[in-house]
Amino acid sequence: MSHRVRAAVIPAARLELRPLLPEHAPEMAEVLSDPALHTFTGGAPLAPAALRARYERLHAGSPDPEVVWCNWVLHASAERCLVGTVQATLGGPAADRTAEVAWVVGTPWQGRGYATEAARALVGWLAARSVSQVIAHIHPRHRASAAVARAAGLAPTGHWQDGEVRWRAVVAGGGPSHEP
Questions:
Q1: Of the candidates 146, 149, 168, 171, the residue with the CA atom closest to the CA atom of residue 157
Q2: What's the rounded Cα separation, in Å, for the pair 138 and 102?
Q3: pLDDT score for 93
Q4: Do 80 and 60 meet the contact criterion of CB atoms below 8 Å apart?
Q5: Is the dihedral of CA 164, 64, 7, 28 positive or negative?
Q6: pLDDT averaged over the chain?
Q7: Can you list the positions of beta strands (E) in 77-174?
Q8: What are the CA-CA distances from residue 46 to residues 51, 53, 73 (Å)?
Q9: For the segment 89-145, what is each residue's pLDDT rounded down to a tens digit?
């Protein structure tokens, strides 16, 4: 399944999810420049050159032929700028038809529903590509990210990984169902 999936443009109401390219790095370095974005995930903002190198690796794809990395930038239509990213990792021997997803929206654009809109669009896109379950790992104190996951159809499970709670949706018939 995973070898057939490739990031493609995903339209949403106020956003367009565009496949991530190395040339997005300069604008995204500014979008992701707030150190507060790393409160729950660790690390620090990357300079444009370092972010471009990261985006080049992501764009080249996973070195494991059984794993597909799909990455998008979020383009806000009305504002005509990039506001964040979403990603999905598919495949791998243990994952089967599972996609692990994540999202981040730059601080100036938070609180406007962009992450929720993007996550919902991504889950729908994955469901249409025979993904059977979508998971996300969220820090237990990251209330905003938990709200996005819930709005996208994921529910918390009792499973923890690296200090984060696993959220999960079983995807059936083009949309998520709540099955922890």
A1: 168
A2: 9
A3: 55
A4: no
A5: positive
A6: 90
A7: 81-91, 98-105, 133-138, 155-161, 164-172
A8: 6, 10, 16
A9: 998 655 568 999 999 999 999 999 999 999 999 999 999 988 999 999 999 999 999
- Measured CA to CA, the distance from residue 50 to residue 20 in angstroms comes to 15
Instruction: Select the more confidently predicted residue: 47 or 173.
Output: 47
Does the pLDDT at position 166 exceed 50? yes
Report the sign of the C-alpha dihedral through residues 36, 37, 40, 44, in that order: negative
Name the more confident of 22 and 179.
22
Residue among 12, 13, 15 nearest 82 (CA): 15
Confidence (pLDDT) at 176: 52
Alpha-helical segments (H) within the chain:
25-31, 48-60, 114-127, 143-151
pLDDT at 92: 62
Backbone angles phi and psi of 140, in degrees to 5: -65, -20
Which candidate, 123, 179, 180, places its Cα nearest to that of 151?
A: 123
Domains annotated on the chain, with CATH: 2-177 (3.40.630.30)
Cα separation, 19 vs 60, whole angstroms? 12
Tell me how far apart the alpha carbons of residues 67 and 124 are, in angstroms, rounded to a whole number: 20
